[in-house]
Model the fold of this input.
Amino acid sequence: MHLTSKTHDAEDIFAVQELYHANGWTDGLPIVPPTRDAVAACLDWAMTPPEQLIGVEPVRAQAVTAEKLAINAVMAGCLPMHFPVVLTAFEAMLDERFLLHGATASTGGCAVFVVLNGPIRREIGASGGFNALGNASRATAVIGRALRLALINILDVRPGQIDRSTLGHPGKVTYCVAEDEEDSTWLPLAQARGVPPGAAAVTVMAAGAPRQIMNEWTTEPREILETFAAEMRANLRHYSLHAGNYAIVVPKQLREHLQRAGWSKADVADFIHERARIPRREWADVGKGAVVRDRGDSIYPALESPGHLLVVAAGGPAGGFGAVIPPWLGHKSQAVTRAIGACVDCAP
Done:
């Protein structure tokens, strides 16, 4: 396989680390040396030639090739079996609906939230159970990190340069979760978003940090979901009134109460769409009265429609916890779902 990227020589693994850190090619953590053999193995696994164009970042017309993406995947610790997920996720990020340049250059500090669906989760050992939004598994950790390293090294999204985040959040290191499809009666997220049943898929969303909630004092679906809606209303007050994609992560304990009562993901989204909204006058309660003006009675929903809510089944088996993952900037960036290794809407 003919690779065209520049090569570097180093005396040992420690010299490799210093070379990469000195050149700003890392996220601050140690990397796996991207040898030619390791990069070629990723490309072989995905049956992708190194020169294949994955997409073009439209604002700066920066091309992303499979070879460059594979280099960063190896650096992040990916095995060849992880690379098709990384490749498809980056394709989704380059979709114009995602608004990649805005999401990565904003002072708002969002990260790329990634959700995995389908049989590929089991094939690569991606866990959607304990610590689902943390270091749940090697696969989710390295896939999320690969996307960040690719942003740094291919699109120059470095702090203080393209990346203008005021604060950022830990999801900018890795922010990937596998949906717990086996322990749920709910429709998988990708299938709800149009991917055929049984297909592997990835969803990307420009997202703020997760906001954890807890409600262990009821089994009533409306009361459980009211806690999620209240956290979304808080985000409307404290961060932004713009409606957009939100995600909620519902672990097993709360999920079972909802499922036992016959609530589907669509029912959950319908309820939250109605409850997660505030009048503009509430901004005066959180120090933003100067922008209320004569529009205090205007109502602002967190979601433009129920379909804008991503409901994800994931998390450990015990504890009445959940999470709300807010959008970066409302509808300007939209979540994108892509099938992995297949085209589900191509002409025959």
The longest strand covers residues 111-117. The CA atoms of residues 216 and 320 lie 5 Å apart. The mean pLDDT is 95. The first helix runs from residue 13 to 22.
